[in-house]
Amino acid sequence: MTTTGGRSRPVTLREVAQHAGVSVATASKALNGKADVHPDTRRRVEEVADRLAFTPNSLARAITAGQTGTVGLLTHDLEGRFSLPILMGAEDAFGAGRTSVFLCDAREDAIREQHHLRALLGRRVDGLIVVGSKTDPRPSLGPDVAVPVVYAYAPSDDPRDASVVPDNVTAGRIATEHLLTLGRRRIAHVSGDATYAAARDRAEGVGQALAAAGLELVGPVRYGSWSEAWGRAGVGAALDAAPGIDAVVAGSDQIARGVLDALRDRGVTVPDDVAVVGFDNWEPMIAGSRPALTSVDMNFETMGRRAATRLFARIAGSPDEGVETIAPRVVVRGSTASG
Amino acid sequence: MTTTGGRSRPVTLREVAQHAGVSVATASKALNGKADVHPDTRRRVEEVADRLAFTPNSLARAITAGQTGTVGLLTHDLEGRFSLPILMGAEDAFGAGRTSVFLCDAREDAIREQHHLRALLGRRVDGLIVVGSKTDPRPSLGPDVAVPVVYAYAPSDDPRDASVVPDNVTAGRIATEHLLTLGRRRIAHVSGDATYAAARDRAEGVGQALAAAGLELVGPVRYGSWSEAWGRAGVGAALDAAPGIDAVVAGSDQIARGVLDALRDRGVTVPDDVAVVGFDNWEPMIAGSRPALTSVDMNFETMGRRAATRLFARIAGSPDEGVETIAPRVVVRGSTASG
DNA sequence: CTGTTAGCGCGTTCAG
DNA sequence: CTGAACGCGCTAACAG
């Protein structure tokens, strides 16, 4: 029974039954809380099982159950900051029950994705969650996959698939509405890479909120990259072009940090002179910013939980399709608060 | 064969055999590349398998193989930045073969850990990697776990277990040696929470390097918290106490960012006046810092790969115990470069 | 209440 | 080269 070297084979139900002096069927029923077992017998079996550290073999159980109680989580953004909270939400939703999660990282590679897909199907997962790295639609795995699939973050390009995505338009809108509520009227928007749907969607939301208030963005949407450096450069350009700006919607928390730094370098006071709001509510960026950054939380964990819940329902048989969006929320902090 | 709603049961080997007009045994041999099968027969079987999208059932295979080809990854730091690269390294090492990874997040909770442990053992994983959230030793799962276990990041408190940990003493040493090489002599150390072994180990390494050069730290090790705010405050205190400082070893990249910000606020030029080095080489922190931050990379991915490799060897039967440290490396950037 | 029998999907003997 | 029989660990259906 040493740790290093030879391992002992796990205890089987048969052994438990033998030690308890009953048949395997009785032992099975006793341990699974089924009726028609004498209380004394049940207690005896349970005691033996406990003593032998019996752990039922889920694989064997899966054979008859027709379900393995496992799901695959196929991500393309393991190192990124989006799939992690999604993963946690899903793990949370599954972990409460008796479902285990296979994690696979395909790293944006279609071949690796195919490889992992085969492996997961070979392990007879009951379902799949596919997590993309961008909010742009991604190719569907197709209707021929033998198990239910839910797409998270990146929706499937097939509307008949089930997808759960962040609502970036609303995010842009509520960020802007928050600024409008504070009385800001001359609002600029420094965003990330324009090839990302997330950037364009947020910009659209910003535009909607302004239009509803009879206002316009000060200057064009300044697309760039998702970096602090761009935040610094972008806000500089915006201020130079239009000095009277009283608020900036930054395309992400990283951009927002850059914006805050550049404003401080210029001697502009936040939030008194200019209010700043970011997106993602990403703790590491938020924690260090001066002042603390108001940010729109996309509720990724909720997204993961919803994906898991929908997958569960699909596995249980309920039909379900279409894209579901997760509502974001504004988390107010010092970069807009005292304005 | 619709996606939503009823799913078709996966194709079995039996069906393939029937469609190909052969026995299951023949079909099995044909698909597994075994000898004693007529080439024509083999091709026919392969063709049918392909047409029916046959995916061999890994669970059934596991029955005879005695191994499931799965491992459990039990982490306590899923949202943290340490377990992720470890996870990626492990996933990388396993993914190349035919091993799948069950991911469980126990969140520092012993009960949840026990729950997940039972679930994983029930699924008959071939082995386990346990990832801690701190480098302080953690309780061993004990010698009674039926499968090999490798501890990563946090070592087991039982020296007979196999552990893979970062080498924080060396990290502190090489960070300081790098500064000494640049001619810096008056070095301060602003670190994180002193209750973390990581903080104390790095400080020890810093001290070793200085002692070897016949020098001493300027001021005490300034322990605080792992935050930018503390980096700003800590370096301020250090400068006020001893104005002649020409380099700062920061306890983490986040602390280093705070240090950089405070120095810039004070009009101190980096790296000309003061050089700064951080730890972890954490991309999000590195990316935005001004100037780019020199940092000690703890090589977490290597750690994950080593953990996976050692686990593999243990599963294959080789005895293996003891703590293995992963060598860190200095990544030089602007915060020390032109000094 | 308890024991017996069958069978889940596959690989692996062993006879043919 | 092929086919039938066995076993893995467990549960469901039925018999006692």
Q: What does it look like?
A:
2 copies of one chain form a homodimer. Chain A is α/β, with parallel strands linked by helices and about 350 residues long. Chain A folds into 3 domains: about 1-65, lambda repressor-like DNA-binding domains (434 Repressor (Amino-terminal Domain), Orthogonal Bundle); about 70-165 and about 300-325, Response regulator (Rossmann fold, 3-Layer(aba) Sandwich), CATH 3.40.50; about 170-300, Rossmann fold. Chain A has 13 helices and 11 strands. The first copy, chain A, has a 6-stranded parallel β-sheet with strand order 2-1-3-4-5-10, sandwiched between helices. A 5-stranded mixed β-sheet of chain A has the order 6-7-8-9-11, sandwiched between helices. The model of chain A is unreliable at about 1-5 (pLDDT under 50). At the A-B interface, helix 4, helix 5, strand 2, helix 6 and helix 10 of A face helix 4, helix 5, strand 2, helix 6 and helix 10 of B. The structure holds a DNA duplex (16 and 16 nucleotides).
Relevant terms:
11 strands, alpha/beta, 434 Repressor (Amino-terminal Domain), DNA-binding, 339 residues, Rossmann fold, 43% helix, disordered N terminus, 6-stranded parallel sheet, 13 helices, homodimer, 5-stranded mixed sheet, elongated
Report a brief summary of the structure.
Chains A, B: Residues 11-65 form the HTH lacI-type domain. 2 copies of one chain form a homodimer. Chain A is an alpha/beta fold.
